[in-house]
Amino acid sequence: MVKLIRSNNVYITLLHRCKYSTVPKSISTIHINGKDFKSDDYSNITPKILTYLGRNLHLQKGNPLSMVRQRIVNYFYKSFTHRGNPIFSIYDNLSPIVTVKQNFDDLLIPLHHPSRAKQDCYYINKDLLFRAHMTAHQSELLRAGLNNFLMIGDVYRRDEIDSTHFPVFHQVDAVRSQRKEELFNSNPDLEIFEPSFDTKKPKVLNDITDSSKQSCHTLEATKLMETQLKSHLIGLIQALFGKDIKYRWVDAYFPFTHPSWELEIFYENKWMEVLGCGIVRNEILAAAGPNNSIAYAFGLGLERLAMALYNIPDIRLMWSKDSGFLNQFANKDVDAKITYKPISLYPQCVNDISFWLPNDLTIDTFMSNDFYDLVRDIGGDIIEQVKLKDKFVHPKTKKHSVCYSIVYRHLERTLTQFEVNKIHKEIEKAVTDSYNVVIR
């Protein structure tokens, strides 16, 4: 039995005797993977998002994400060894359910930072969420005594809907830390920390107003780590795209690293950002245990790399179970040169939806990401794109109206306008019931 109910401005599907289900807010619990979690005003997990849990595309042999993942692992295994053994450890099956502390607090992300907003994250409740980045596991692995590791898995962010955005994607994050004797093995007179830095109070926030380094670090330590970091990541990109790939570094800001950079490559006649990186804030290292080392970290998205490497035009294809897609990657060497060949170019169906907002909502306060989640819950993966087409304020009544275009396209067959219209009517009813709007 499948029943749609309204809960917390989101349609919740109750799938009886199904592996994934959620429970109405009135029962105050959300059931995920056999466990019950308390719900509250933060809860915004949708039924569709629950269906992606446990798919682990990065571990599915023959999936392009798995192939890119293995190429990255191979690079680090080959490039970093000690006495013939790889020094990087791999963690690719960590639970996607993390605490707010793990996802934000441990990484020095400010309380009012926009990345914490319900608009951007999938919250189970005010204390738990689906990780928004693999860096959420960084502190726990540092506390476990690890100093060189890769974290690989699925991450969850509420976002727009188009060919390059999906609410679930896959990241590789890494940390490499070194003590003084490792970093300056050929120059033991140099130090990681400035003489003025109080090593007895390593958790105190240090100044980052100097764009070249953190106040606690010496310039020599920072520059040497920067050189290593950039050299290692250029090597990785060249291993993936070839020695002739054009690249450039761009200064960036992340709450958990300083200084920070983004690496861009020249792809299809334009610059494309492929990863972010930087020197880990010393407060994070000290809070996790190692207060006598310096570290770099980076994070990259597997989907973006796979789409560029194999010319995959639509991010939804990563989730396809169609043999026509998967067979192009099955039983292939991970370093094979593969160019995706479309199975078929099925036509789009485009329907617009316009509605008047209730008096308590305006164009500025209506959250498009809530609407996108609702559309995806009902339309599923045949939703190719949702884009805001028009905004309007009635000159007399001052009522606000919005219009969205919804692009429908199935990846494996032709959709009929009849079935699209049926789904579109369900979306109209859902948005009417959820937000008390009036369809125009």
Automatic annotation (TrEMBL):
It catalyses: tRNA(Phe) + L-phenylalanine + ATP = L-phenylalanyl-tRNA(Phe) + AMP + diphosphate + H(+). Residues 68-342 form the Aminoacyl-transfer RNA synthetases class-II family profile domain. Residues 344-440 form the FDX-ACB domain. It is found in: Mitochondrion matrix. The keyword Transit peptide applies. It is an enzyme of class 6 (ligase). Belongs to the class-II aminoacyl-tRNA synthetase family. This is phenylalanine--tRNA ligase. It comes from Diatraea saccharalis (sugarcane borer). The lineage of its organism: Eukaryota, Metazoa, Ecdysozoa, Arthropoda, Hexapoda.
